[in-house]
């Protein structure tokens, strides 16, 4: 007998163990899983796999690359009615960098849980796992599948979610648990890492007239980006996301002071909107090349996509209409939890949601806890938001994975 949705939601709520989500988030934070850790996400993945298995949830480790498995846990639906849902969160974090708190010794103070990855996004991941645990413990039978995909590599090339896109599981809908401060974020910009290689001609620093200085030429390029391209971008707007942006992030060139530099690389981050195409993004840079060449005929440059920016799938923008059934159902669950109407906004960063929406054709929105300091010196997640997210994830799962 299928459960009545209201009864089911109540039963699941009662199955939540107090303090479990914070405890799980702490355990995950204590396991470093950033680049530079020899086994990367492996230990965190194995821990989560065991945690879910111990709860009687069917979970497996599926290798993406050597020592780098995704965790895929499934609560099987009984009949396939309703809509299947994937909760997706990443296991990796950025390194500790210059953190001013102990990164891997989680501490809770004044309702905030501190540590690397607390907000981005071991907190959200813990809430997703606890939602599955509560549903499993409640013995409520879902009609369609509820999947948790804990993935590797989101902070770099999104290898983990690419693997999900290629090999499944395929669900009808998905939620990515990146931090949104309990706002529903159905859209965000695309992200492209670009390199402009400027080529000069080497010569002795005492005979500069015999060479072409790639660093000076790169400076002309940067000038033109600032004076011609940035104002153009500033005029563009999107109906779905924040406006486009371009950041000059890296400059590298030359060998030593007494040599005319023959090579200089400018690394850029370009956030592109759904109304733009990637070809347009490239063409704008070629237009800057042409403009520089007019005044400096010896300017020679090549535009390349940075191979570190992605694996095989372009980091496209994410667009799910704000009146989509997933957004509406999520809104109902948020209102039930917070008593307030859910705010619908746009995510400022890029997430794996775009790969799921665009390449796997699974409409995916971003929803997660609040806090501060993702990638920064002091990172924390609000503990009350961890419980709120657990409740929202399980409420939305019972609403979607059960038929009316
Ligand atoms: Zn993240």
List keywords for this structure.
404 residues, alpha+beta, Aminopeptidase, Alpha-Beta Plaits, 6-stranded mixed sheet, 10 helices, 21% strand, binds zinc ion
Molecular shape: elongated
CATH hierarchy: architecture of the largest domain? 3-Layer(aba) Sandwich
- Which small-molecule ligands are present, each listed once? zinc ion
- How many angstroms does the end-to-end distance come to? 13 Å
Strand order of the largest sheet: 1-2-6-3-7-14
Largest sheet: 6 strands, mixed
Number of helices: 10
Taken in chain order, the helices and strands follow as HHHEEEEEHEHEEEHEEHEEHHEEEH
Q: Find the count of extended strands (DSSP E, 2+ residues).
A: 16
* The CATH superfamily title of the largest domain: Zn peptidases
The helix content is 25-40%
Average of per-residue pLDDT values: 96
Contiguous uncertain segments of 5+ residues: none
What is the domain tally?
2
Description:
With 404 residues, the chain is α+β, with helices and mostly antiparallel strands. It folds into 2 domains: 5-188 and 317-400, 3-Layer(aba) Sandwich (Aminopeptidase); 190-309, Alpha-Beta Plaits. Helices cover 35% and strands 21% of the residues. The chain has helices spanning 5-14, 20-29, 42-54, 118-138, 159-167, 214-235, 278-295, 325-338, 353-358, 383-400; strands at 58-65, 68-75, 85-90, 107-109, 112-114, 146-151, 173-176, 187-188, 190-199, 245-253, 263-272, 301-305, 318-319, 364-366, 371-372, 380-382. The strands form 4 sheets. It has a 6-stranded mixed β-sheet with strand order 1-2-6-3-7-14, with helices on both faces. It has a 4-stranded antiparallel β-sheet with strand order 4-5-16-15. The chain has a 4-stranded antiparallel β-sheet with strand order 10-11-9-12, with helices on one face. A hairpin with a 2-residue loop joins strand 4 and strand 5. The longest helix is centred in the middle third of the chain and has 22 residues, at 214-235. The mean pLDDT is 96. The structure holds zinc ion. Zinc ion (ZN) binds at residues 90, 120-121, 154, 178. The site of zinc ion has 5 residues, from helix 4.
């Amino acid at each position: 007998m299928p459960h009545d949705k209201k009864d089911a939601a109540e039963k699941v709520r009662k199955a939540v163990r107090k303090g479990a989500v914070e405890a799980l988030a702490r355990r995950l934070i204590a396991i470093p899983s950033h680049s530079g850790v020899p086994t990367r996400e492996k230990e965190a993945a194995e821990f989560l796999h065991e945690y879910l298995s111990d709860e009687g949830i069917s979970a497996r480790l599926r290798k993406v690359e050597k020592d780098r498995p995704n965790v895929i846990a499934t609560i099987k639906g009984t009949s396939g009615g309703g809509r299947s849902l994937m909760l997706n969160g990443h296991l990796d974090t950025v390194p500790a960098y210059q953190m001013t708190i102990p990164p891997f010794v989680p501490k809770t103070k004044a309702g905030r849980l501190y540590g690397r990855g607390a907000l981005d996004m071991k907190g959200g991941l813990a809430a997703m796992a606890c939602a599955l645990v509560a549903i499993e413990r409640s013995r409520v039978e879902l009609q369609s599948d509820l999947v948790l995909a804990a993935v590797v590599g989101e902070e770099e090339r999104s290898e983990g979610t690419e693997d999900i896109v290629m090999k499944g599981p395929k669900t009808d809908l998905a939620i990515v648990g990146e931090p949104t401060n309990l706002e529903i974020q159905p859209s965000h910009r695309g992200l492209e890492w670009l390199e402009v290689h400027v080529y000069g001609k080497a010569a002795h620093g005492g005979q500069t007239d015999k060479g072409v200085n790639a660093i000076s030429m790169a400076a002309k390029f940067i000038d033109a980006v600032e004076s011609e391209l940035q104002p153009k971008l500033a005029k563009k707007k999107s109906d779905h996301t924040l406006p486009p942006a371009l950041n000059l992030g890296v400059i590298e060139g030359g060998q030593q002071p007494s040599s005319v530099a023959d090579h200089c690389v400018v690394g850029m981050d370009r956030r592109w909107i759904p109304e733009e195409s990637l070809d347009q993004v490239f063409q704008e840079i070629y237009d800057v090349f042409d403009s520089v060449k007019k005044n400096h005929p010896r300017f020679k440059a090549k535009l390349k996509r940075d191979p570190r920016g992605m694996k095989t799938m372009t980091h496209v923008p994410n667009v799910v209409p704000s009146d989509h059934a997933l957004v509406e159902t999520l809104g109902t669950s948020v209102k039930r939890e917070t008593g307030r109407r859910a705010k619908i906004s746009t995510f400022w960063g890029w997430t794996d949601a775009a790969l799921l929406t665009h390449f796997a054709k699974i409409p995916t929105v971003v929803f997660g806890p609040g806090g501060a300091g993702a990638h920064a010196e002091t990172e924390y997640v609000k503990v009350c938001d961890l419980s709120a997210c657990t409740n929202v994830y399980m409420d939305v799962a019972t609403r979607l994975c059960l038929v009316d």
